[in-house]
Amino acid sequence: xxxxxVSPLRIEAGEAxxxxxxxxxxxxxxxxxxxxxxxxxxxxGITTPVTDELDQEGITYxxxxxxxxxxxxxxxxxxxxxxKDFQADLVIGxxxxxxxxxxxxxAVMHGNEGSIEDYLNLSGTxxxxxxxxxxxxxxxxxGTGAEITDIxxxxxxxxxxxxxxxxxxxxxxxxxxxxxxxVPASITAATGVDALTHAVEALVSVNATPLTDTLAMKAIQLxxxxxxxxxxxxxxxxxxxxxxxxxxxxxxxxxxAGVSGVHALAYPLGGMFKVPHGEANAVLLPYIFDFxxxxxxxxxxxxxxxxxxxxxxxxxxxxxxxxxxxxKSIVEDVQIPADLTxxxxxxxxxxxxxxxxxxxxxxxxxxxxxxxxxxxxDRYVAAFEGKLEVSKTHS
Length: 395
Ligand SMILES: [Fe+2]
Known about the structure:
The protein is of the alpha/beta class. Helix content is 51%, strand content 10%. The longest helix has 23 residues, at 210-232. It starts with 9 loop residues before the first strand and ends with a helix.
């Protein structure tokens, strides 16, 4: 088989990776740096190691904080205008997914005419002609994988749309686990399960390749062995490091292989009930795999090994079911509610959720098992009732 693989141009990863920042900035010949940072992240002092590096080298910079999660278009357009006003020659994004999305969107928009609205994936009429400014993305959670992918999400009135183009890929991603040390337990849990979901969905994707499998397996291993410990004790540096590294390589894997059913059914939960992305994935994760495992048993066996629940005397079926049960147990152990009722969803809402999920055809097409309307509805019912089929049959 042949396959392609796309990634950011450069990745600096590991403890104290932010110390590479001055060299990176210089390598682009940049003199005026525009930093997009989450206000909460700035307030918590998490951007200080980044700005300290710029200060020490006497690099001129401005920290722009007028951001919000899954921002509306006007927030993005204001960010682009501010970037142009500053006459920046390099962009840095520091924070969670949205800060990194805005940073890469603004960097590309800097080189292109018009509003972000003109370039939206579903409703836009223009395509990018120029790459814009170079950009360095620095995640402070582990993680959305936003430092790896070329997608920036924006909220419209009742829905979401994205900018997506290879121009949005980071010129450099800097993944320093030290920036994640103070992330609160609930965000560590939600972003960590998002990263795990990226890896398990990439592993079973119909677009998986030997390279994405290798990365997904390592990501599952790292995240599943460390997520409980990291949520319990955020000061555990080794566990934090495993999560940061695991999240980043899960990003590389899913950016190339794609995510599918869990994300497809999670998006309407975010849109209609404002369930944060990581929690929306988490509450669906076991129920989606409870449905698809018989159609992906070899991959489910690999997953059982990466999750460390595989035993020599298990049949293929038993190993696959053990993997599903372990996904459920991880979600429970990191204290994310295990059914939809906790997020304000009523039984009457499941049809509307199903309608919305059927529109995610690009994501659903990557699933090893296709979904009918009834099957999507049935998955929401399972997540609503908190009932896992494999629990009943598992010995
Ligand atoms: Fe995700």
